[in-house]
Design brief:
The structure holds two protein chains of two kinds.
Chain A (H helix, E strand, L loop, with lengths): L11 H29 L5
Chain B lengths: L31 H12 L9 H4 L15 H29 L1 H25 L2 H21 L2 H7 L4 H30 L7 H22 L29 H4 L3 H21 L2 H8 L6 H29 L1 H25 L2 H30 L4 H8 L1 H23 L9 H19 L12 H5 L1
Helix pairs in contact in B: 1-7, 1-8, 3-5, 3-15, 3-16, 4-5, 4-8, 6-7, 7-8, 7-12, 7-14, 10-14, 10-16, 10-17, 11-12, 12-13, 12-14, 13-14, 13-17, 14-15
Classes of the chains: A mainly alpha, B mainly alpha.
């Protein structure tokens, strides 16, 4: 198969979009994991 | 720069069409997993729907249920209908999704899932339960099904070198969605509640708007690779290796193969074992360790299982890229058998720590089963129709959703009616689950490559 592009070489603009996109999903997910872990600590009290 | 080829509609057609989602040079494929997560983190809310059950039994009585309030048994149907329509939508829209591409599918999923909340809000406002069934159950369930399978093929196409990791990331989001939705829903209801009002209507509307927006962002970000694209340094295999084919099998043809039904059984049995105990985890932990695990601690235990369910999806699916899908499922079945058989022993020995550890591993493999199956399908049937085939295979989930809880509940009730102590009532269930996993092990062991007569010809594949 022919390879036509190098998707791993990202520009600064691309990096910013990657950070924004991953933050957009990562922050809520982190918050959910944190809240659940805090609740899970009750198991060990 | 990330090119927004899809932003332009001047070339004719809709912004949603597949041709407008083809990535331009320079697009980073690492933007696709967050696009998929935008959808899966939202639809994963379904696992947290039970937080609305109790408040919805007090819509009229407010502080306690009034005679005209809805019953818990009636409300339980909302989740069941949603899961049934998840399976149906995934099975029947897979081919359409393959044709129209991920953006239109994600867009449709957002409209269905968000719209389901709006109709449900109206149902709660008018106190018409059938509207909630139709809203969250039917329309929302269709959103669940379409949303679940929408990014699968796209991710596999972008990550041919690591398909397990890619789909594992998205399906991890489905596990993680409940972790967000549960505290968020409780917090929203607290904000909207008044002495005369439980706040469910406003919470549904808010969630509908938030989820629709979140999923639309995913639809805007997602791209499909150009036909001649391949990742840097990746050389596509030219010959099939063991279970990994270079050919493609049409979705209708896949249903005529032994391998489809073997994988259906593999998924169904893995999910049956996990889902059966997941629903009973809280009660089981308290009854196996009376006096040691309180109701509050049990809720913490369930939370811990949710986290292992989520991370297991990513961990096991990623691991499968290195050790192979079949071997990954072999681990699920063999290790699962050992752990299920050992759970009663942890109860008898009074070891809470081992009980929790064993359960966390079991549930990680339950999640891992979901996340590894798309890559397994890709290996066996090729990439071309993997989304549609995955959709049809998800009927195994619907079957397991009924089989698992019924097995656990029925066996437990029977044991107790025969005079078995509550603490010991789960032992037989665990041994039966281990037996189911043994059958799953055999089915997985029987997996062979699909015969060439089922493969698409080169002309068919290019069409």
């Amino acid at each position: 198969m022919a390879k036509t592009r190098d998707p791993e070489d990202v520009s600064d603009a691309n990096r910013l979009k990657l950070v924004l996109a991953w933050s957009f999903v990562g922050i809520p997910l982190f918050w959910g994991v944190y809240k659940t872990l805090a609740n899970a600590m009750l198991l060990f009290q | 720069m990330i090119e927004g080829g899809a932003r332009s509609v001047s070339g004719g057609g809709s912004w949603l069409d597949r041709e407008h989602t083809v990535a331009k040079p320079g697009f980073s494929r690492w933007l696709v997993p967050p696009a998929a997560l935008c959808v899966h983190l939202c639809i994963g809310q379904v696992y947290a729907f039970s937080v609305f059950n109790l408040p919805m039994t007090r819509l009229i009585g407010i502080t306690e249920s009034a005679p005209d309030d809805w019953k818990l048994t009636e409300l339980g149907w909302i989740f069941s209908i949603a899961i049934v329509f998840l399976g149906l939508a995934a099975a029947f829209t897979g081919t359409w999704l393959d044709r129209v591409g991920p953006r239109k599918a994600m867009f449709a999923a957002a409209l269905c899932f968000g719209g389901g909340f709006f109709i449900s809000a109206l149902g709660v406002y008018l106190h018409q339960l059938w509207l909630v069934y139709v809203g969250y159950g039917v329309l929302g369930g269709c959103g669940l099904g379409i949303g679940y399978i929408s990014p699968v093929k796209t991710l596999i196409t972008w990550f041919p070198d690591r398909p397990g990791m890619a789909t594992g990331m998205a399906i991890m989001g489905f596990g993680g969605g409940a972790l967000i939705a549960s505290p968020l829903s409780v917090w929203l209801m607290q904000q909207f509640a008044t002495p005369t009002h439980v706040g469910v209507v406003e919470t549904f509307i808010t969630l509908g708007i938030v989820y629709m927006f979140f999923m639309m962002v995913g639809a805007a970000i997602v791209r499909v690779p150009a036909a001649d694209w391949a990742p840097k340094g990746y050389v596509a295999p030219t010959q099939s290796q063991k279970l990994i084919t270079t050919a493609n099998v049409h979705v209708d043809e896949a249903l005529k193969t032994r391998q489809f039904y073997l994988l259906w059984g593999v998924l169904c049995l893995n999910v049956t074992a996990g889902i059966g105990v997941l629903g009973q985890a809280s009660a089981m932990s308290q009854e196996m360790f009376p006096g040691h695990i309180t109701a509050i601690a049990a809720s913490g235990f369930v939370g811990l299982l949710s986290i292992f369910n989520m991370f297991g999806r990513f961990f096991w699916a990623s691991t499968s890229d290195y050790i192979g899908r079949r071997n990954t499922y072999m681990i699920f079945f063999v290790l699962g058998m050992v752990l299920y058989a050992a759970v009663p022993w942890t109860g008898k020995s009074g070891s809470v720590a081992l009980f929790v550890l064993f359960y966390c591993i079991i549930i990680s493999m339950y999640g891992g089963g979901f996340a590894t199956i798309p890559a397994y399908l890709k290996d066996v049937f090729g990439t071309r129709y993997v989304g549609a085939i995955h959709g049809r295979l998800l009927t195994a989930w619907s079957a397991a959703g009924v089989l698992g809880p019924v097995l656990v509940n029925y066996i437990r009730e029977y044991q107790i009616s025969q005079g078995v102590a509550k603490a010991d009532a789960y032992s037989v269930t665990m041994y039966i689950m281990a037996g189911l996993l043994f059958i799953g092990f055999l089915l997985n062991y029987l997996m062979t490559p699909v015969h060439e007569r089922h493969h698409m010809t080169l002309e068919e594949a290019k069409a």
